[in-house]
Amino acid sequence: MAIFETISYGLVIAKSVLLSWVFLPLTILGVLTSGGLIWLIAARFKGGRYFRTVLAKLVIVKAIILFWLILPLAILGALNLGGLARLVATPFQGGGYFETELAKAETAPAGTNRIHFLSTGSGDAILLESGGHFALVDAAEDSDNPKDNPAYVFDGYELYVADYVKRVAGGHLDFVIGTHAHSDHIGGFDTLILDPAITVDRAYLKVYQNDNKYEYEKTWDNQEVYEQMLDACAARGVELIQDNLNHREVTLGSMTLTIFNGDANLKDENENTLGMLVECNGKRAFLAGDLMNANGTETRLSKEIGGPLDLLKAAHHGNEGSSTMAFVARLKPASVVFTNKAGAPHATVRNRFAAISNSKLMTTGQFGGVMASFEGDTIQYYAIGEFPSGIGGANVERR
User: Fold this and answer.
1) Could you give the C-alpha distances from 232 to 166, 203, 273, in angstroms and in order?
2) Strands in the chain per DSSP E
3) Could you list the pLDDT tens digit for every one of the 399 residues in the chain?
4) Helix count (H) and strand count (E) of the chain?
5) Nearest 10 degrees: Cα torsion 137, 143, 146, 151
6) Contact 324, 303 (CB under 8 A)
7) At 85, phi and psi to the nearest 5?
8) Sign of the dihedral through C-alpha 220, 223, 229, 232
């Protein structure tokens, strides 16, 4: 995979070099030759004696090709100079154009539609807010170790997520969505749903089938966290929706969510993840869960979703092998949020976003969470801030 990424990265550089340094000189030649074209055209009005030979006609063809074909290619090449410059510069800037400063979330105007990307290590917990309605996509890693396996002892964020929901959403969620059965995504849901100070109306969760997963996945606690969420929903009377999820539309205030990948049933649970296209105020944001492309899932979904996007929650926390060149090129996100600790997204992923889509890059761990605020015809970004004392834990690497 590392070799493939290196080759892909090299191809992007080669593209910029070819477009910038081959087509540009050819266009200069074309422009110079266009003088011959103008001269020949002018001659026609002087009797047309230069049009009487085959040689003269070939000169015309040559001038037309050089000027009218190569000129647009050179313009494209000139535009790609920026991409080449970014690729050269990014290794010296930590591999990407990451924002270094965001205004504090409390300075954001009231009454806006918002997406809160919480800082929960390298897990996902995303609170959607619109018109006084709230929903939660994933609930981050939990502190449980249901298989009592010392290799799977992780810091949990379930108390932080539940506290955030109570403080910001007043303890009520119209619905929750579990993207897939990995504990760094749905591990915290049982604690949140069972909290007596929190009410949840509906839960969207794909059916998980452990028997068709890779053997290494069966050693994880996928089945356990899935069943814990089911049991919590049953205990609190939460409506559970597991069928017909693909392309299902769900509304939240003035937001419209469209669920993608609802019918996938692959051995790799990451590629079974639900993706959500959030549309609001004419803006489009895609929450990519843990999408990968070993089975072509990113390629397939990027064609369904289409670009450009105003905002992308990077697939699989920006880990190596995610957000392929084709995925980035097709979606062309203006801004990207990585749900990971500062500096953790892989360099090849960061460089792709910097070079191909020139995206604004932000990481939740860098700002204690990132809030996207839909303000008029723009999306503004704010830093949520640090964890309250005693809540949350150190950032951890997760699958």
Assistant:
1) 18, 11, 21
2) 103-104, 113-117, 126-130, 133-137, 172-178, 199-205, 239-241, 249-252, 255-260, 275-280, 283-287, 311-313, 335-338, 360-363, 370-375, 378-383
3) 344 444 444 554 555 445 445 555 554 555 555 555 555 555 555 555 554 455 555 556 666 666 666 666 555 554 444 444 444 444 434 444 678 899 999 999 998 899 999 999 999 999 999 999 999 999 999 998 877 777 777 889 999 999 999 999 999 999 999 999 999 999 999 999 999 999 999 999 999 999 999 999 998 999 999 999 999 999 999 999 999 999 999 999 999 999 999 999 999 999 999 999 999 999 999 999 999 999 999 999 999 999 999 999 999 999 999 999 999 999 999 999 999 999 899 999 999 999 999 999 999 999 999 999 999 999 999 999 964 433 333 332 333
4) 13, 16
5) 110
6) no
7) -60, -40
8) negative
> How many residues are present in the chain?
399
Asked if 276 and 248 touch (Cβ cutoff 8 Å), the reply is no
State how far the Cα of 181 lies from the Cα of 185, in Å rounded to an integer: 7
Radius of gyration of the chain measured on its C-alpha atoms? 26
Cα gap 330→332, rounded to integer Å: 6
Tokens of 98: 């990451």
- CATH class for the domain made up of 103-383: alpha beta
DSSP string, 129-172: EETTEEEEE-----S--TT--GGG-----HHHHHHHHHHHHTTE
pTM for the model: 0.77
Q: What is the Cα–Cα distance from 269 to 183, expressed in whole angstroms?
A: 11
> How does DSSP assign 170-214, residue by residue?
TTEEEEEEE-SS-HHHHTTHHHHHH-TT-EEEEEEEPPP-GGGS-
DSSP one-letter code for 109: P
Up-side HSE of residue 189: CA atoms within 13 Å toward CB? 40
Please choose, from the candidates 250, 312, 252, 217, the residue with its C-alpha nearest in 3D space to the C-alpha of residue 113. 252
* Backbone region of residue 269 per phi and psi (left: phi > 0; alpha: psi in -120 to 50; beta: other values): alpha
- Vertex 334 angle, CA 365 and 351, to 5°: 65
Distance CA 115, CA 112 (A): 10
Closest CA to 6 of 327, 260, 345, 320: 320
